[in-house]
Every structure is written in structure tokens, then in C-alpha cells.
Amino acid sequence: xxxxxxxxxxxxxxxxxxxxxxxxxxxxxWRAAYDTSLFIRDRLGxxxxxxxxxxxxVHGETGYATLAAxxxxxxxxxxxxxxxxxxxxxxxxxxxIAAGAKAVWMQLGVIDEDAAARAKAAGIDVIMNxxxxxxxxxxxx
Length: 141
Known about the structure:
Elements: H1 7-15, E1 19-23, H2 32-43, E2 47-51, E3 79-82, H3 86-99, E4 103-106, H4 113-121, E5 125-127, H5 132-135
Parallel strand pairs: 1-2, 1-3, 3-4, 4-5
């Protein structure tokens, strides 16, 4: 059965202040993750943690190469926001499960039904093929 985003989960994730690890967030200002992460931090009021292979800091926030590299004082991770392509997102979802994340958010165009099913089976909220910057308007955020 295909995953369908639950509007109540969308709203809960965007309204509940928390820590979002943003996988694929780099210093490249032309990538969607760059501006969307600012929206998540500055408009929704979330703490953001950049996750990118070189562990570059972004928006003044310390970066980490993987979810597993995020130190204990930055745990728990409330949402793992995935700005990676669909072929790579399954591995990120598996890392999110291993890290004990509470939710996985796959951005627009990022679809992996098997990964979504694994996350749901692990008790993790799942949003797929959606963008918080676009969905926030529906909830008056």
C-alpha cells in the first residue's frame, strides 16, 4: 500500500519545537535545502543540524558527516529531513531508525515506499514527497 501523508502528523511536526537533522544540507545556496533549512529554523523555530559528507557548517550551525556522528548532547533527533535522491534515501532512513529519530521527512520528489514502511514499522512518523515550507501555509505557519 502506498504511503499517504497524514495531515495531523504534518502539522504536529511543524508546530512542535524540536531538533531537525537536515541530511544533504550544504553551503550550496542554489540547492533547495539551503533556503528550506532557514525556513525550518527561522520561521518554524526549530534547531537545525546540517548533515553533509564533508561535515561543513551551514548557517552558523556545526555540520556532521552522518547521523551517527551527531554527539549525544545534540540528541534526541526529532526529525530527519532528507534532501537526498530517492535511490539514496533508504540508507538515510535506516540511519534515522538506528539513531532513534522520532520522524523522517522525505522532501519533494524523494520517494521510497520500502524505506517508509521500515520507518513506520520502527514506530517513526513518516512524511514523504513534501516540503515544510510549502505545507506550512496550509496550517497558518
